[in-house]
Hints:
The chain has 4 helices and 12 strands, in the order H-E-E-E-E-E-H-E-H-H-E-E-E-E-E-E. By secondary structure, the chain is of the alpha+beta class. The protein has a single domain (15-232), classed as Deoxyribonuclease I, Chain A, CATH 3.60.10. It has a 6-stranded mixed sheet with strand order 3-4-5-6-8-7, with no helix packed on it. Strands 9, 10, 11 and 12 form a 4-stranded antiparallel sheet that branches. Strands 1-2 form a two-stranded antiparallel sheet. It is globular and about 45 Å long. It starts with a helix and ends with a strand. It comes from Eucalyptus grandis (Flooded gum). InterPro entries: Endo/exonu/phosph_ase_sf (IPR036691), GPI-anchor_lipid_remodeler (IPR051916). This is Endonuclease/exonuclease/phosphatase domain-containing protein.
Amino acid sequence: MKPLSELAAALGMSYTFAESWTQEYGNAVLSRWPIKHLKVQKIFDDTDFRNVLKAMIEVPHVGEVNFQCTHLDHLDKNWRMKQVGAIIRSSDSHHILAGGLNSLNETDYSQERWTDIIKYYEEIGKPTPKVEAMRFLKSEQCTDAKDFAGECESVVVIAKGQSLQGTCKYGMRVDYILASLDYPYKFVPGSYSVLSSKGTSDHHIVKRKHQTVVKITGTAPPSKGIWTTNTLSKVE
């Protein structure tokens, strides 16, 4: 499927895609290593046109890495909470969850900035922004990749009263990379960053690295395996 297939070819990666309500809209995972197993499921139930794409990736010298990509509802808070609850209940192994969660994390903003965000949403006719989905994920002790932030790309502006770069055209963070409580690998300190999509999308690219120490038998010293994950989502 173009342009996804062209992007994967240019990067030398394999990819998988799960369409949502149209053939060219959905969730995708690209990997430089083999994608061994796939599962696509409606997020909440069969009436939900959105899905979560689950991929098991075989990383050399590391083993299996479980990766989940999704895009939650952007209008209905109650439906979004059902979706995020269903994702947690259906996850039976350690994993990374990445994508457009369409929920704000209240600790990213000062009270003044939060008031400005609510006012702005009212002016453009969008529903009042909610934090319940991210609050729930934090209660599940998910690790937020932004806690390992590095240098900011200057073209992606940080609004006054906001502690980090926004990921969408409205200036807020709605795209996340989260590790489950039992995730066995570590984020690399200083590796989280937001890169400008340079006008090709209404969202920016969120990037971070994993790190794990791998034991090597014999006389060779231990080595570190490091890999990178990017997520680029499109808001509706």
